UniProtKB/TrEMBL annotation:
Keywords: ATP-binding, Nucleotide-binding
The UniProt record lists the keyword Nucleotide-binding: yes
Protein origin, superkingdom: Bacteria
InterPro entries hit by this protein: ATPase_dyneun-rel_AAA, CbbQ/NirQ/NorQ/GpvN, CbbQ_C, P-loop_NTPase
Coiled-coil spans in chain: none
Residue intervals of the ATPase dynein-related AAA domain: 39-173
Domain CbbQ/NirQ/NorQ C-terminal as annotated: residue spans: 186-268
Protein name: Nitric oxide reductase NorQ protein
GO molecular function terms listed in the Swiss-Prot or TrEMBL record: ATP binding; ATP hydrolysis activity
Amino acid sequence: MQDVELISPQLAILDEEPYYHAVGDEVPLFESAWRNRLPVLLKGPTGCGKTRFVEYMAWKLKRPLVTVACHDDLTAADLVGRYLIVGGQTVWMDGPLAAAVRAGAICYLDEVVEARKDTMVVIHPLADSRRVLPIEKRGELVHAPAGFMLVISYNPGYQSVLKELKQSTRQRFVAFEFDYPDAELEAAIVSRETGIGADVAAKLVKFAAMTRNLKGSGLDEGASTRLLVHAGKLIVDGVPPVAACRAAIAQAVTDEPEMLAAVHEMSSSIF
Ligand code: ADP
C-alpha cells in the first residue's frame, strides 16, 4: 500500500483562560497526575463541569486539547486513524487519539463507556506505564511524549451493566469525583456565565436542587449546571423565568407529561 502523507486533524490550542472555578483540590491533583504521566478518570453526572475543567487544565498546562465525544458507533479506527483514498492515492489519516499522542496533547475521551469495546485495545497500552499507541494498520507503535495525557470521563449514575467501566480499565486511572458545585458556588458560576443577577441565579439553583431530589423517583438526572446556564442565558435575553425553566430545564430532563407538569410546577413556585 502506498503511504503518501500523514494528515492530522486540528489540535485546539486554548489561548484564552477558560473560566473554571475550582470546587476542591482538583487543580493541583490534576497537575500532579500530569507531572507523573498518569492518566485521569473524571467521574460524575453530565453538565457538572468536567469538560470545562479539562479545558482549563489544558490551558494551564499549555497543552493542546483534543476532545472526543464518544458514542456507541465509535470504533478504535475512529480514534486511531485509517487509510483514505484521496485523488487516487492512499493517504493515512490520523484519528484524534493518534494526533493527540504525536502532539503531546491532552486527549479527552468524554463518556468513554459509550464507545465500542475495541477502543479499549488502543486505550489500555496508553493508560499504563507503556504509554504507547499501537497503530496496527501501519505496523507502527507511537510512544507518547511527556506532554501527552489521557483523560476519560464516565457517568456512574446511569447504573447499567452495559455502561460499566471495567476494572481492567478503571484501575489504570487516577480518578476524580465530580458533582454539582454547592449552592452558593453554583449560583456564582451561573451568574458569571450568563450575567443574571445573584438573586435569580440563587433561585435557579434552588429549582435545580428540587429536580435533583427527583433523581431515581421519576427523573434519570436532575437539572445540571449546564441547564441552569442555558436557562440563565434565556432569562438575560428577556424570556420570562418560568418559560425559560420550562424550555431549558424541564423539557431537557423529561418527556413524561406528569413529570413535566411537576417540574414546571416547581419552577412556578420559585419564580
Ligand atoms: P460536563 O463535561 O460535566 O458534562 P461541562 O464542563 O460542559 O459539563 O459543564 C457545563 C457548564 O457548566 C459549563 O459550560 C459551565 O458553564 C458550567 N460549569 C460547571 N461547573 C463549573 C465550574 N466549576 N466552573 C465554571 N463553570 C462551570
